[in-house]
Amino acid sequence: MTDLHATVVGAGLAGCEAAWQLARQGIHVTLIEMKPEKMTPAHHSPLFAELVCSNSLRSDRLTNAVGLLKEEMRLCHSLVMEAADASRVPAGGALAVDRESFSGYITRALTEHPLVTVEGREVTEIPDGPVIIATGPLTSDDLSDAIARLPGLETLNFYDAAAPIVTQESLNMERIFRQSRYGRGDDYLNCPMTEEEYNAFVDALLTAETAEIHGFEETKVFEGCMPVESMARRGRMVLAFGPLKPVGLIDLRTGKEAFAVVQLRQDNATGTLYNIVGFQTRLKWPEQKRVFGLIPGLEKAEFARYGVMHRNTFLHSPGFLNAHFEMIARPQCYFAGQMTGVEGYVESAASGLLCGLSLGRDLNGLGTVELPGITAMGAMGRYISTPNKHFQPMNCAFGLIDGLVVDKQHKKIRNKQERYTVISQRALDFMQGWCQEIYGAQD
After folding, report:
1. Distance between CA 294 and CA 219 in Å, rounded?
2. What is the pTM of this model?
3. What is the pLDDT of residues 13-37, one digit of tens each?
């Protein structure tokens, strides 16, 4: 039994994954989480790894970069991926989960692990010794102030939003049809709109009253979480070409593609709750009920949760963190999760995985983790550590991953899906050998 010890602050996706990877390497972990003693405006559950916004971990296909990232994490014995696979709910080609089952799985795994000690308290200063800070975009004010005092660091704020959730029994199924895009099953509920209905909805959205957010600026909202009313202000047809695009959906009752389609995705295992896809919002709650009630099928919708908006904080990581998320000026002090500038549930968990694996190897005298840019995790670490004065949060994307070498022997693959498949297979081939070397002694 080892006497090596590390501290992880924050039991969100990144912190839980980091603690799990440390414990798997025989490191004693103190996992500190301020919930439920102190809650943020966006959190409601006392469980670890609470999914605040959507219940979707996005695409599970290797033709999508986040699908590749998931497979890399599975090869690395990710607790988050294990929990997600165990609590999956139907979502076509995406990986969506039952929120409570997902968080409960992770909470049990860590609280029952013999090398993990959980402490319920707020951290206001960065702990001494080996530590991973994974307090997320809603880091408390005192700890944010402590982080901001670190030499040479810029802290930046933007705003994030969550979509509403409605009850299935309140939906008007006479107006709604079930189908996933491009014939990939029938996991989504679809609310088709005529051009007249779409224009009436946009008009109502543009004139609806929004909740005041102190210091709110449109330019500080991450594009992937842009409120639906903010998108509508960019142009009348922006929604029809964005979250309401009808492409790949044919209403079998009419045999036609609608002018616009609002999609609903199952939010729990029993199928009693559905979230409105892409409808992050800061509309006042009565306005949400009024405006979203104009969507065909949602005329009498009951809201299990209204959309909310909250502050997000992220670091200017380039020059502050290296490619495995370790603070350059203070070895064995790591930052993980969305606060580092990775964006999304899976990306946050992956950064925690890299932190936990790297710190654990360092403590065991095995050196830190180095992954090349041909892998999704390696490319993600490279992105947050490469100098960039316009640094902004970023989802995992093939544009970050090294492309294929094109020469006389290797012709360019022009079909994008084929090219992405080859890039993904190259990454997984590397990861399989790498993981066998890294984890072989443990497993």
Report:
1. 28
2. 0.74
3. 999 999 999 999 999 999 999 987 7
Other C-beta atoms closer than 10 Å to the C-beta of 268 total 21
Confirm if 45 and 384 have CB atoms less than 8 A apart.
Answer: no
Among 329, 350, 441, which residue's Cα sits nearest to residue 395?
350
335 φ/ψ angles, rounded to the nearest 5 degrees: -125, 140
CA distances from 179 to 55, 174, 225 (A): 19, 14, 24
Confirm if 155 and 315 have CB atoms less than 8 A apart.
yes
Instruction: Determine the residue type at 212.
Output: E
Q: In which region does residue 166 sit, left (phi positive, over 0), alpha (psi from -120 to 50) or beta (all else)?
A: beta
* CA proximity to 14, closest of 349, 244, 280, 358: 349
Q: Describe the crossing of helices 345-363 and 376-385 by its angle, rounded to 10 degrees.
A: 90
- Taking only the tens place, the pLDDT of each residue in 177-218 is 999 988 888 999 999 999 999 999 999 999 999 886 544 445
User: Taking a C-beta distance cutoff of 8 angstroms, is the pair 343, 224 a contact?
Assistant: yes
What is the bridge-based pairing of β-strands 165-167 and 177-178? unpaired
Q: How far apart are CA 388 and CA 391, in angstroms?
A: 5
Q: How far apart are CA 437 and CA 383, in angstroms?
A: 25
Q: Hey, what amino acid is at 158?
A: F
Between CA 209 and CA 286 the distance in angstroms is: 9
Q: CA 111, CA 108: separation in Å to the nearest integer?
A: 5
Q: Three-class SS of residue 170?
A: helix
Alpha helices per DSSP H over 166-280: 195-207, 228-233
Separation of alpha carbons 402 and 62, rounded Å: 15
| Tokens at 76, concatenated | 């690395």
Tens digits of residue pLDDT in 67-85: 999 999 999 999 999 999 9
Mapped onto helix, strand or coil, the DSSP state of residue 124 is coil
Q: Which amino acid is at 215?
A: G
Of 119, 213, 92, the residue nearest 161 (C-alpha): 213
CB neighbour list of residue 9: distance below 8 Å, 6 or more residues apart? 15, 32, 123, 127, 131, 132, 133, 134, 135, 143
| Radius of gyration, CA atoms only, the chain | 22
CA 247 to chain centre: 25
Report how far apart, in Å, the C-alpha atoms of 410 and of each of 405, 406, 407, 413 are.
7, 5, 5, 9
* 18, 76, 161, 195, 365 from 25: Cα distances, Å: 11, 12, 36, 58, 12
Burial class (CB in 10 A: 0-12, 13-18, 19+), 393: buried
Decide: 244 and 260 in contact? Cβ < 8 Å: yes
Give the end-to-end CA distance of the chain in Å, rounded to a whole number.
17
